Amino acid sequence: MTETTDLHRVLIQTFLARRFIKEKTLVELYKRAIAAVREDDPRFKGPYALNAPGVAEMAMDLSDMLHVASMEIAQARDQRTGDTSYILRNIDATEVAKLATDLNQQEVDFYRKLVEAIMISYPANSLANGQARSLVKDLEGTTKPPQSWAAKLLESLVSRGWISRSKRGRYSLSMRAIVELETYLKSEFPDYVHSCLRCKRLVFEGVACSKEECSAHYHAYCYAALNAMPNPKCQHAPCSASFRQYPPKPIGEQGVSTMEDSFSGGVKKRKRGRQTQGDDEAEEGEDEAEAESEEEEDSQTQDRKPGRDYVPGTQYEDDTQPSSSRRR
Questions:
Q1: How far apart are CA 80 and CA 94, in angstroms?
Q2: Where are the beta strands (DSSP E) in 227-314?
Q3: Where is the segment annotated Disordered (predicted)?
Q4: Which of 48, 124, 185, 233 could be a cystine partner for 58, CB 3.0 to 4.6 Å?
């Protein structure tokens, strides 16, 4: 095991403060850490190269040092762009509640409902804004928090990196959530978790092979690499279907129509197998009816001021307050 130096201590403190660091940023922070150590030891030389492979090696050594505290630094790639980042995660946590320790119990319950709804929304792997806010109705207790409470909590979860919000306004699991909740997701949602056949990492945004009986999934950037080959085909040996003959189907928010972005009803488990046209039409009719019902209920509660019949466990500070005073 690598001997722990002042450089490693500085870098560990950096990860504890940030938890999530992009690769390019980490290279720059590594340079600054070396400069800080040289203030006490002018002859100090950094043991790692000042590039991507160097910080990858550094992350492995830091992980070895952090294992005693049941933590590690994991490498992750953005689901859409493939950009690399490093995330400090708790390797003992198996529940959302243990990971989201900065949330109170009701907020944790909402986040758990949110994660479940996102997972069972496959192939969308995301929720419309209205669908996410409506999850307050699934919380336990006779008095439900208003959707304005959910809206503020969703904003807070986005700012703290627990979920992502796209330009379409849909919520999905963030890179941090995918890395930190990997064990939990595989345990609780085995039928909805897929690994990219090319890079073996979890995939929530990309494509899936469209040939019947094939379960192969690929990140968008992994599919792009395969598609650049002379004869692009599915890498699943029993399948090997040509991507030109069987164009892959999108997963993630690209897998659902923009019309669904305005849905405010509950989330139903989507059938994993192929559906007939009749099944699709029946489900669409049910979704429309449920959406109309939700809109009627929302209109009845819009004028209700939050706090009259419900007091949230956590009071969020106004956005005009200095960022240093906000809860992180």
A1: 26
A2: 249-251
A3: 250-328
A4: 48
What pLDDT, on the 0 to 100 scale, is given for residue 265?
A: 64
154-158 contacts at long range (C-beta below 8 A, 24 or more positions apart): 154/114, 154/129, 156/316, 156/327, 157/111, 157/114
| Alpha carbon distance 306, 166 (integer Å) | 27
In the sheet that 71-77 helps form, which strands lie side by side, from edge to edge?
20-22, 84-90, 71-77
What pLDDT, in 10s, does the model give residues 267-287? 655 544 444 344 444 444 544
Q: So what's the pLDDT on residue 85?
A: 93
Topology of the domain covering 6-90: Aspartate Aminotransferase, domain 1 (3.90.1150)
- How far apart CA 303 and CA 277 sit, in angstroms, is 41
pLDDT tops 80 at residue 34: yes
Contacts of range 2-8, beta carbons closer than 8 Å, 24 or more positions apart: 2/47, 2/61, 2/64, 2/65, 4/65, 5/37, 6/37, 6/40, 6/41, 7/33, 7/34, 7/37, 7/44, 7/46, 7/47, 8/61, 8/62, 8/65
| Topology adopted by domain 105-189 | Arc Repressor Mutant, subunit A (1.10.10)
